[in-house]
Amino acid sequence: MKSKRVTLANVAAAAGVSRTTASLVLSDRGDELRISEAAQQRVRRVAAELAYRPNILSSALRRGSSRTIGFVSDTVATSQLAGDLIKGALEYAHRSGYMLFIGETEGAPDEERRLVQGMIDRQVDGLIIASMFTRVRAVPAGIDPRSVVLLNALPEDSAVGTVPSIVPDEYAAGRAAVEVLRAAGHSRIHLLGAGPGPDDVPVQTVAGSERLRGILDALAEDGLEPASARLCSVWLPEDGWAATRSLLDTGVRGEAIITFNDRLAFGAYQAIHEAGLSIPSDFSIVSFDDHQLASWLRPRLTTFALPHYELGALALQVLLDDDAPDGRRIRRVPMPLRMRESVAAPGPGRTGVGARAAASAPREAAVSP
């Protein structure tokens, strides 16, 4: 049976003060309006004894805020990989005195419209529209651009500069991947997943485009080009295995590979081991994402981590506090380097030298403006 709610009038009556006095004390304005300390202590004691809780809905209506944020994603909530996007947003919301309403669309446009409209109807103070994979997307219709943030997504051209967007700094990570291998002494670097040209990427792959651009720019600054590149339309372990088998068939040994995600790297490991070769003695490998299994590979995989928690927390911060001018509405979060044992100096049997060379490599991708 539902218990009767204790009201502000109940607290005021039990404390022997007016309803206005009780309200001022419980909203921390007692000193401001010179209510005696004894009366304030009495009101607070009675409120605690009666387990009084303010009526959030009526308070929200009075101050024009519901203290709630809507979080609408495609498949983030059901993904083990990107769950920290929600965790980061949720913890920042709690610290700021907000509740987070979470809805999942499974990629269905009709469900997204329904969820967005439902949250607007419930008067959320703002909306985060999140994507599992970084992509370009439209802002849902009916939303004030000033009260929405795109998380792990970039706005379509028409919305650039009006809608804040939070994404990983894939370009800086691409540059840093080359720097790791160059620091170990590599000049011949093979690409698995994209390249060799800047447009040779899978369709609608924002992360791939930006990683490739960073890689090519860093190589060009040293007067280099990719030693080879194999475009994969899908970035799964079997694709990495097939691309690596193709590379091995050319007779290449003792060089370096950049895989465009860790799943491709898993396949590359398998192909190299099946050929009777080893990492990093015969091939150095650098990758991206820091999948949960990356540190379980042997040797452990050097990779750039997707900063999911930081992305989610920053989305809430920008939504609640953002004052960035137009033109600086895209925030890029650094992808930290997880330096492990898959990088060595070029040439078979030189693992120890490579480990020392790699130790001087940059530990974190730079922050883009």
What this model shows, in words?
This protein has 369 residues and is of the alpha/beta class. The longest helix has 16 residues, at 206-221. Helix 1 packs across helix 2 (19-26), helix 5 packs parallel to helix 11 (308-321) and helix 9 packs across helix 10. It has helices at 8-15, 19-26, 37-49, 56-63, 83-95, 109-121, 170-183, 206-221, 237-248, 262-274, 308-321, 351-358, and strands at residues 68-73, 99-104, 126-137, 148-155, 165-168, 189-193, 228-231, 255-259, 283-289, 302-305, 330-333, 337-338.
**Segments where pLDDT lies below 50 for 5+ residues?**
349-369
Q: What overall geometry do the principal axes of the alpha carbons give?
A: elongated
If strands are numbered along the chain, what order do they take across the biggest sheet?
2-1-3-4-5-11
Q: What is the tally of beta strands?
A: 12
End-to-end separation in angstroms reads 57 Å
The main pleated sheet reads as: 6 strands, parallel
β-strand percent reads 15-25%
Our Rg estimate from Cα atoms comes to 27 Å
Structural class: alpha/beta
The percent range for helix content is 25-40%
Average of the residue pLDDT scores = 85
